[in-house]
Amino acid sequence: MMAFDDLLAKIENRRKFPVILVLFLTFPFLFVGSLFLLENFTAFIPEHRCWVHLLDNNSALLNVSEDLNFTSLLKVSIPLDSNGKPERCRRFFLPQWQALFPNVTAQNFSQLEMEPCVDGWVYDQSIVTSSIVTEWDLVCDYWTVKSLSQSIFLAGHLIGYGTWGYFSDRFGRKWMVPTGHLMLTVFNTGTAFAQSYTIYCSFRFFLGFSISCLLLGTGSLAIEWITRPYRPMAVVIMSLYFSLGHLFLGVMAYGIQEWRQFQLALSVPFFVFFLTSWWWPESARWLIVHNKLDDALKMLRKVAKINGIKDDTLTLEVLKSAMEKEQPETQTHYNILDLVKFPVLRTRVLCLSFAGFTSGMLFYGLSLNLHTLGHKIQKIQILFGVSSFLSRLGYLLVITYIGRRISTITCFLLPGLLIIANILLTQEILRIISALLALTLIINAPSCIGVSSNEAIPTVVR
Description:
With 462 residues, this protein is mainly alpha-helical. The protein folds into three domains: 1-43 and 140-332, Growth Hormone, Chain: A, CATH 1.20.1250.20; 48-123, no CATH class; 335-462, no CATH class. It is built from 24 helices and four strands. It has helices at residues 2-12, 16-25, 29-36, 39-42, 53-56, 58-62, 70-77, 132-136, 143-171, 176-192, 197-224, 231-255, 259-265, 268-276, 284-289, 293-306, 316-324, 327-331, 338-341, 343-367, 377-401, 404-424, 428-442, 445-456, and strands at 48-50, 90-92, 114-116, 121-123. It has a two-stranded antiparallel sheet. It is elongated and about 95 Å long. The protein starts with a helix and ends in a 6-residue tail after the last helix.
């Protein structure tokens, strides 16, 4: 691969095309980062209680004595939990007026006096006015159903990588960029208009599937146009867009509190990107590997022209010479079984896959449950975006001067210790700090894995 890297460095080293490529081609990652954590708001679980005829029916309130305020009516209608707060999933079968007497505790009421929320729930709208939870009542006995959409989304993302990885190797990188943008626009918009939770989950699956197409096509195209010395920097810069997306999501949440509007607002940018994504050149590296030398030469000359370089030595013979030095890649046909066929490659793929699985589990397990850290979800989301941006920026220095192995070990070891500490902590502010520190460290793991995979795994295998 050094032969092609030398050729690529000759036409673009320290020129404007790599800068344009990284800054603008991967700019949509900002909105992809928002989509990944969007359900922190669109699936937010607000404070809730059972709907009660005495409290929530205006005609019933007219017949209640003026001496009884809302708090008193709530006390006789909703039992208290162990923390002294109104129960979320149960109500009294009949108003328990004795609850207004002094020295009466929750132990004085038997389970026979209670019933589930047969008439629905009343939700607190101070943080979000609506979410999929409030629209389809995904609380109490149905609270586990809420996480189903997240699992389906990530399943689509996983299946998408396997599917688009094959098509990327077969047909190239460039076409996947506009395809990913168009699919994201369609399925994200469809999600916003879903009329049932089943339809919503279906669109979420295809949304995750579409994100894989965009990430794989854009990431491969960008990395394969960057020379080896600058790839770590390019990967970290691309990851910075995700952190900006997390920050942007928290800012948007202050202005948009209705989940369908939120979903639609993140669809518009991808339609714009779709209209402007046809300009990017196909990966010359991929074209050479697939023996399309004429097309590769056109792409290289196009990039040279963008960089203001007039090089008459860039000819078909030069490409053929570079190709001869890459004979094993250009003349050997691979399939997915080759990932485990060769001992060295098998070890690399298994280690990188396990590291990717672990980092993904830790990241999504924490970042998709930010509401458990406190109900100031917008502030926590913004704080997470800022801290992750600074962390990734610092990681660029770490991976440059310390190396890949130590950086990767640090990204896994420290978050693990912080998560264990979070379990033991009782104060909310300390739990927030430890959880955000764990997130800002584990968030760098995918960048390190991405750099390692691009350096340790051949083009056709990637």
